[in-house]
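ARCHIVE CARD
Drawer: 12
Card no.: 0347
Subject: one protein chain, sequence and derived structure
Cross-reference: see card 0346
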Amino acid sequence: LSGTRAYDGTANAAAAILSVANAVNGDNVNVASGTATLASQNAGAETITSVGTLALGNNAAGNYTLTGASGSVLITQAATSIGLASSENPSGYKDNVQFTATLPSDASGTVTFRTNSSLFDSESLTAGVATSVATMTLPRGANTVTAEYAGDGNYFGSTNSLSQTVTNHPPVAAPFTVARTAGLSVLISRADVATNWSDADGDTLTLTGINLVTTNNVNLATNAAWI
């Protein structure tokens, strides 16, 4: 009694095959094995400790007596497919982003994470899930993130990738309020205005122009050195 099947996490040896010797000429004998129990369910050559009900087909039951048998089943490693997800995609430049790899719940071992082909992190699986540490160093644009599973005794390794898009945060300018006495001029310094704009990415900001008419229709004049 022997057979081969891929690992599936169960002790069912349904792939076992029973051969019958000394069949009578002319009999078309089909033998079906019942569910067998393996000594272990892990990959490798596993002993079948017992066999359930055996049956003969094609009206040959009266010609043969079948008894239970023992044997072995070769359980091979099962293929895997990694589910890979990002905590934020697209993400802003310098945002913290994590990546999660998902495998069968009984898979063990480690998952290696790479960003743009460079080693980024390596995490152990817990209940089939591995989550990377957070990173805020991805450059703007499209980044390739790869998860590599090395496999274990029951599962083959596998690899999966995703494209992580990192966008630019636009600069932000807050309202700047100036008070003046009616009929008098007021000098607004560039340094004062500059305290009201910022860029989350830390990019250098440059003043490119000024609207010389305010929201309440006051006309402004500029000093060339100011700009």
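Annotation on reverse: The mean pLDDT is 80. Residues 190-194 form the longest helix (5 residues).
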